[in-house]
Amino acid sequence: MRHTGKRILGPALVLALLCTAAPASTAVVFSRETTAIKVLGQIAVKGRAPKTGYSREQFGPAWTDVDHNGCDTRNDILTRDLVAKVYRSGGCVISSGILHDPYSGTDIPFTRGVGTSLAVQIDHVVALSDAWQKGAFKLTLTQRTAFANDPLNLLAVMGRLNSQKSDGDAATWLPPLKSYRCKYVARQVAVKAKYGIWMTSAEKTAIAGILSKCPGEVIPVG
């Protein structure tokens, strides 16, 4: 495989996290044990583009079964992130479970139903609107659909905090649980590197400040 135009971090075994994601000119390729602070240095800094043309539909149908396992993405993430899970008979739909919320550190009971399901929501760690304004508008619909359903960019979290975050980046919103902030921004770095999404100067400065306190934080890969 040619790597012309790509910025390569790390020796020998590299993860081409960009399989169907960003154009080659924006790819950041790194080894499994690369630190987030090192990858951060490779992400482009630009201003936020206009939100013109953005809609949820630009990222494909919500919770598409992109891995063709018979379960939609939302239920895949609930399966990954909840404990004490109870499934509906004969399927992968979770009726109930418990979330150890990474953003607050609290345990949140999940019960599927009107008025209860919203207690646990699936957060796009890099918000779709934020990504659109920082380069995702250049991606194909297939690439944006992959972005919206990528487990790397998805976490089950407290619904109230997900709503509070909205489409904020690290310069405007961080999890209230300070001990989780290193992992949170490292995941944002991984997602933006994978899909060739840039950062604003304020965002990159905020992330660098957090990672300076945990320089050994390794980039997540899934």
Task: Give me some keywords for this one.
222 residues; alpha+beta; 3-stranded antiparallel beta sheet; 7 strands; globular
Evaluate the radius of gyration. Answer: 17 Å
Low-confidence stretches: 1-21
Average pLDDT rating: 88
Q: Say how many strands there are.
A: 7
Strand arrangement within the widest β-sheet reads 3-4-5
- The CA-CA distance between the termini, in Å, is 23 Å
- The percentage of residues in β strands lies in 5-15%
Number of separate domains: 1
| Count of discrete alpha- or pi-helical segments spanning 4 or more residues | 7
Question: Biggest β-sheet, characterized?
Answer: 3 strands, antiparallel
Helix content: 25-40%
What would you call the shape? Answer: globular
Summing up helix and strand content along with how strands pair, one would put the structural category as alpha+beta
What is the helix/strand order? EEHHEEEEHHEHHH
Question: What would you say this structure looks like, in words?
Answer:
The chain has 222 residues and is an alpha+beta fold. The protein has one domain (7-211). Helix content is 28%, strand content 14%. The longest helix is centred in the last third of the chain and has 15 residues, at 181-195.
